[in-house]
């Protein structure tokens, strides 16, 4: 699904076919030029199509997208990093956030929630959140220095350290006031399920990307 990573020869066809089943025009996608940072952009009708047909036209230095506009499809791309879907059903605001360990360390989810609350006056307890496929602590080996980066979410197993991206980002949601029963997790490890999902840790630089999409109808 990526226009930059992996085999990109059929990317636009893949997007068109996949999104047609969701009633989304692939040419309307709003895509971010993700940099493993913590910048979030609020987007609207004028942003439709940015990054849809060419990677260079995507929103620069951005790892999270928010909108309250109907018919504006948001997209982020992952291959082990965590995609998080956010939805406030009363004021009808959505967000998509890309969180690897760097974005998680920079509290990108906390920042996204704060921006949604500030701009749209959203109470945290109304928010629904969902975690997409990502590398899990069963497979995510990291160095000992990660114990300094995070005060929780790392554990020792078989003489190595493991990072739990899901636990860390869940904590950010809970600390921001999101109700625990409003958080859902698909439970899929991209590394364990590499036959079905891209995994940068397993495949390296040639790895393609999955696409997470959200749009208000």
Structural topology:
Elements lengths: L10 H10 L9 E2 L8 E3 L21 E4 L6 E5 L3 E7 L4 E7 L1 H5 L2 H13 L7 E4 L9 E2 L3 H4 L4 E4 L2 E4 L1 H11 L7 E3 L14 H4 L6 E5 L3
Parallel strand pairs: 1-4, 2-3, 7-11
Antiparallel strand pairs: 3-6, 4-12, 5-6, 5-7, 8-10, 9-10
Distance between the termini: 22 Å
Mean pLDDT: 95
What's the main sheet like?
Answer: 6 strands, mixed
CATH architecture: 4-Layer Sandwich
- Residues in helix, %: 10-25%
Report the order of strands and helices: HEEEEEEHHEEHEEHEHE
Question: Spans with pLDDT under 50 lasting ≥5 residues?
Answer: none
CATH topology label: CNF1/YfiH-like putative cysteine hydrolases
Describe the structure.
There is one protein chain. With 217 residues, the protein is of the alpha/beta class. The protein has one domain (11-214): CNF1/YfiH-like putative cysteine hydrolases (4-Layer Sandwich). The chain has helices spanning 11-20, 101-105, 108-120, 146-149, 165-175, 200-203, and strands at 30-31, 40-42, 64-67, 74-78, 82-88, 93-99, 128-131, 141-142, 154-157, 160-163, 183-185, 210-214. A hairpin with a 4-residue loop joins strand 5 (82-88) and strand 6. The radius of gyration is 17 Å and the shape is globular.
Features:
22% helix; 3-stranded mixed β-sheet; 217 residues; CNF1/YfiH-like putative cysteine hydrolases; 6 helices; globular; 6-stranded mixed β-sheet; alpha/beta
Task: Give the structure's gist in a few sentences.
This protein is of the alpha/beta class and 217 residues long. The protein has 6 helices and 12 strands. Strand 9 (154-157) and strand 10 (160-163) form a beta hairpin.
């Amino acid at each position: 699904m990526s226009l930059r990573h992996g085999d990109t020869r059929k990317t636009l066809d893949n997007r068109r076919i996949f999104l047609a089943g969701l009633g989304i025009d692939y040419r309307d996608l709003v895509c971010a030029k993700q940099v493993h940072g913590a910048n979030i952009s609020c987007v609207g009708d004028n942003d439709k199509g940015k990054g849809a047909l060419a990677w260079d036209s995507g929103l620069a230095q951005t790892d999270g997208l928010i909108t309250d506009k109907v018919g504006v499809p948001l997209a982020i791309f992952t291959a082990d990093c965590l995609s998080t879907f956010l939805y406030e059903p009363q004021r009808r605001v959505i967000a998509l956030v890309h969180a690897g360990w760097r974005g998680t360390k920079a509290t990108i989810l906390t920042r996204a929630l704060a921006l949604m609350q500030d701009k749209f006056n959203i109470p945290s307890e109304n928010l629904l959140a969902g975690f997409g496929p990502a590398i899990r602590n069963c497979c995510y080996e990291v160095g000992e220095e990660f114990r300094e980066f995070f005060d929780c979410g790392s554990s020792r197993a078989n003489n190595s350290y493991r990072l739990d991206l899901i636990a860390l980002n869940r904590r950010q949601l809970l600390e921001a006031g999101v109700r625990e029963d409003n958080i859902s997790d698909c439970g899929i490890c991209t590394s364990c399920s590499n036959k079905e999902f891209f995994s940068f840790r397993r495949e390296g630089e040639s790895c393609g990307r999955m696409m997470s999409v959200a749009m208000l109808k």
